[in-house]
Amino acid sequence: MTNTMEKAKTQVFNNFIDGKWVKSETGRTFASLNPANQDEVIGQFPLSNANDTKKAVDAAHKAFQEWKRTPAPERAELILKAAALLEDRKEELARNMVREMGKVIKEARGDVQEAIDMAKYAAGEGRRLLGMTVPSELRNKFAMAVRAPIGVIGVITPWNFPVAIPSWKILPALVAGNTVVFKPASETPYVALQFVEILAEAGLPPGVVNFITGSGREVGTPLIEDPRVGCISVTGSSETGRKIAGRCGELMKRITCELGGKNAICVMEDADLDLAVDGALWGAFGTAGQRCTATSRVIIHEKVYKEFAERFVERAKKLRIGDGLDPQNDVGPVVNKDQLKSINEYVEIGKNEGAKLLFGGRILTDGALAKGCFHEPTVFGDVKANMRIAQEEIFGPVTALIPVKNFEEAIEVANGTQYGLSLSMYTRDVNRAFKAIEDLESGIVYINAPTIGAEIQLPFGGVKQTGNGHREAGTTAIEQFTEWKTVYVDYSGHLQKAQIDKYEGQ
Fold this sequence. Notes:
This protein is an alpha/beta fold. The protein has helices spanning 5-8, 50-67, 72-88, 90-101, 105-125, 164-175, 189-201, 216-225, 238-250, 273-285, 305-317, 337-353, 407-414, 430-439, 499-503, and strands at residues 15-17, 20-22, 29-34, 37-46, 132-135, 141-149, 152-156, 179-183, 209-211, 229-235, 254-258, 263-267, 295-301, 356-359, 363-364, 374-375, 378-381, 398-404, 419-420, 422-426, 444-447, 463-464, 482-490. 51% of the residues are buried.
């Protein structure tokens, strides 16, 4: 790689435009810090501006003309090479991810593995890119629909899955024949940069992928406003997504949004409680609760509420908190001081609303945790469904236990938020399980498993305020980055007028 972790502590990194690492014209930079020890600077990155963004779009727009003519299987071969490089460097990427955003090492390896899986899956699409053929209603006429690339794709990604989420967007977009301008989250520019280095090393031509860092105002907005950018793909908060989607609507520009969630596990009285506690613990506190799929609500039948709550709190107390590079730790830091403050403010909101604090609630500053952004895993009990801590996305290690009287109330409470990403039902009753699949209002439903993640061969995304109807990965991975082109070939040798000729005289 052209940039190594050994140099990262003092090195100033650059943007990647038209196949070259180039400085921002502003000369200004920002620091990426280790959330487990904010004295450690991972590196300095460009605070780019609108002119830098224009240069990146210039390069992508120019490269598109040749890239779209490159046969799709040839494009796919380069993505497959990237998959092999990702595999070779999985551990390096994972460790750098821990240092930059905080998740524990086993989760960081899973993040990189998801990108490896997506690269292999997307490469396979290079020999498919499925269209359709249908019979014409007229003789000597052929009818089909094929996929065409959109052009330049603007990719805006968050910090919580800094390799996996870019892979969901960038790799299918490339295989489909588009070029990309990639703006990563300012909290995780280093691992995003390494991902781009791997794509370049795999052999992508100059300008096909461009990488630019900076603020949403100075980089994101110009990217959205540029008329040559045909699609914006964004993952972030619902507030940010609404603003971007609104502007893209005004510009008649395609926009794909994957936004917030307020996910819930429902635990029925017939559930396997050991399994449910395991699932809720992982769903609530994995990635320190910083997942759009995090289990921030556990809806529990009143008959097993007390027993579940006691078991869950006991297990939460045993979680080890610390630097994610220590494989013995279960929960790492949250991403930065602002996030830490926001999470703790929600703890106070929960207390003021009358929820019962069963465990946690503190910012941790003892010993080795003093220089980091650590928040204690936090459990509220006897939470009412209309409380803010049961309605608003906290994005931290805080979960709310909500008692309900029966299955029907559990479904009602689970559906009773503005979000609809991932919902789960724990039950041994197969009839209830299928009823839950039918009635839960979310893009993803789990039975007897927590509200976590997805396998890349299935669509990922949600309903209501979680997104705008698009799905990432799976069978829809190519859909969002292509346009349909309908084609008719008339080889009759004379003018045919479809419905007029076929039904004339009837």
